[in-house]
Automatic annotation (TrEMBL):
<feature type="domain" description="FAD/NAD(P)-binding">
    <location>
        <begin position="296"/>
        <end position="377"/>
    </location>
</feature>
<protein>
    <recommendedName>
        <fullName>FAD/NAD(P)-binding domain-containing protein</fullName>
    </recommendedName>
</protein>
<dbReference type="InterPro" id="IPR036188">
    <property type="entry name" value="FAD/NAD-bd_sf"/>
</dbReference>
<keyword id="KW-0285">Flavoprotein</keyword>
<dbReference type="InterPro" id="IPR050260">
    <property type="entry name" value="FAD-bd_OxRdtase"/>
</dbReference>
<dbReference type="GO" id="GO:0016491">
    <property type="term" value="F:oxidoreductase activity"/>
</dbReference>
<dbReference type="Pfam" id="PF07992">
    <property type="entry name" value="Pyr_redox_2"/>
</dbReference>
<keyword id="KW-0274">FAD</keyword>
<dbReference type="InterPro" id="IPR023753">
    <property type="entry name" value="FAD/NAD-binding_dom"/>
</dbReference>
<feature type="domain" description="FAD/NAD(P)-binding">
    <location>
        <begin position="6"/>
        <end position="192"/>
    </location>
</feature>
Length: 459
């Protein structure tokens, strides 16, 4: 192990930062660690179930100050500026901290399609989930925009209000799945709801007047991203300890309308009085919000619109510094190699805020903003900044993700979606027929490239 660093400053209170803190502390209990986080509660990940040698099911829990090792100085504050030459971080409060080693774990912030519209909810953290929960208490119709994991989980969980799911693509869940898997999951979804769910479109006639840019983002980084079961947190202190559903069961029936191959052009707030919004005799065209869509001549009226259109690395405060950010417009992640080293000496980055650019990563691994990756990146950063010389290439050997969509366990391995393989790949799929019991339903999809297995989807 190398020379003991004088002061290690880790910025962030999410999974990447806490796994870095824990690993540094484990490797060097006497290390001088300062953890700076905007959020008063920090998030910790733990490996819940080891599915295979390299595949883990993750759990995430909230940690209070007392759960952080005593030796770690926890500072609640937001880093405003980093002077990389002077090795100094400055908080919004004006307080400065010098560092010998710095690890940036500032996460990502969600893009919002209409950030200033009070009827548009952008899910980011536990506070925004509380807002969603309150909004759903008396809600007749909701529109969800986006086709990633958050949208998938919401559509499954929301009950009792009519849902309009607006997706750019032809099929659902394209961030994760090919068409075949997507169709299989949709069948599972329909059968599992066992209600008269249907697809179609309902359009009302309120004309929109506002427009927005898709690259408008919410202004402030809030807390950390929520953990697994983020939709099913306890609702208040009375419920503590009970596995109470946050959303499921608030209301009772489900109607889902998928509006595919279309996107939102503009969102208009109709300024309906709040007492009218929840009136069951609500008049057509008097929805609080109307959404104009690319494919339809009229706008869609609803109570709330949930924006789930992806995230962007939280690196704005690092612009105009010598730290190298990925040049792509939508993804200005901090460029790191697979040792989490940035272009600057003594500066590391991990989790959603970084972009791994390294030829040493295997062709079966790619970056996705997930708990599991934030967790191991934090660990790798700890080894790098302590110069342990440990070989961590195993973390970049194979992409693995264990998750659940529509109540169904899903394992994704390697190049499971055949991305970046060119035209010469083959797919072998096995799936059980639709008429067998839901619990027995399976899909196995293997991606072969030049006779070798490159990836798999197991549902
Ligand atoms: C609604 C939602 C659902 C998700 N569901 C899943 C899922 O099912 N499975 C999955 O694998 N992943 C999921 N994710 C993604 C996952 O949560 C993230 O990939 C992961 O939490 C990233 O961890 P992180 O530590 O990099 O960032 P974060 O958890 O976002 O933490 C960033 C931390 O940095 C702090 N911070 C930011 N800026 C500053 C600053 N300037 N100064 C000081 N502190 C700062 C923040 O307060 C926060 O504590 C979901 C994300 C969201 C938003």
């Amino acid at each position: 192990m190398g020379r003991q660093p004088k002061k290690i400053v880790i910025v962030g209170g999410g999974i990447a930062a806490t796994s870095c803190v824990d690993e540094v502390y484990k490797l060097q209990p006497s290390a001088n660690i300062v953890l700076i986080s905007s959020s008063p509660v920090v998030k910790k990940a733990f490996q819940k179930v080891q599915v295979t040698n390299r595949t883990f099911h993750f759990g995430v829990e909230e940690a209070q100050q007392q759960d952080i090792p005593l030796q770690v100085q926890l500072i609640i504050g937001t880093v405003k500026y980093v002077d990389f030459l002077a090795q100094r971080v400055t908080l919004e409060s004006g307080t400065c901290y010098l560092y010998d080693k710095l690890c940036l774990c500032t996460g990502a912030i969600p893009k919002s399609i209409a950030p200033n519209n009070p009827r548009v909810l952008t899910l980011r953290d536990t506070t925004s989930l509380e807002r969603l929960c309150n909004a759903l208490r008396s809600c007749n119709r909701i529109a969800i925009v986006g086709n990633g994991g958050i949208a998938l989980e919401l559509v499954y969980a929301l009950q009792g209000c009519e849902i309009y799911w607006i997706i750019r693509d032809t099929t659902i869940g394209t961030a994760f799945f090919d068409e075949e898997t997507s169709e299989f999951l949709w069948e599972v979804f329909e059968d599992s709801t066992r209600k008269d769910s249907y697809t179609g479109a309902t359009i009302d006639t309120v004309e929109p007047i506002e427009s927005f840019q898709e690259d408008d983002f919410i202004k402030e980084p809030l807390g950390f991203s929520p953990g697994p079961n983020w939709l099913y947190y306890e609702q208040n202190s009375d419920d503590k300890g009970k596995p109470l559903s946050r959303l499921r069961g608030l209301l009772s029936a489900k109607k889902v309308n998928v509006l595919n191959n279309c996107h939102v052009l503009s969102v208009h707030c109709n300024h309906v009085d709040s007492k009218d919004i929840f009136d069951s005799n609500i008049q057509p065209n008097s929805w609080p919000i109307s959404v104009q869509l690319s494919k339809y001549p009229h706008s869609l009226g609803c109570d709330w619109l949930i924006s789930a259109v992806g995230v962007k690395p939280n690196t704005k405060f690092l612009q105009s510094t010598p730290l190298l950010l990925y040049p792509e417009e939508e993804n200005e992640g901090i460029v790191v190699n697979c040792r989490m080293e940035t272009n600057l000496e003594n500066v590391y980055a991990a989790g959603d805020c970084c972009k791994v650019v390294d030829n040493e990563c295997s062709k079966w691994w790619f970056q996705m903003r997930l708990w599991s990756q934030a967790f191991f990146m934090g660990k790798v950063a700890a080894h790098s900044l302590l110069e342990t010389g440990e070989d961590y290439s195993m973390y970049f050997e194979l992409f693995t993700h264990v998750t659940e969509f529509f109540g169904t366990k899903i394992v994704l391995l390697g190049r499971y979606n055949a991305e970046a393989l060119g035209p010469d790949f083959e797919i072998i799929t096995y799936q059980t027929p639709r008429d067998i019991d839901l619990s027995e339903r399976k899909l196995i999809r293997i991606v072969l490239y030049k006779g070798r297995m490159y990836g798999a989807v197991l549902v």
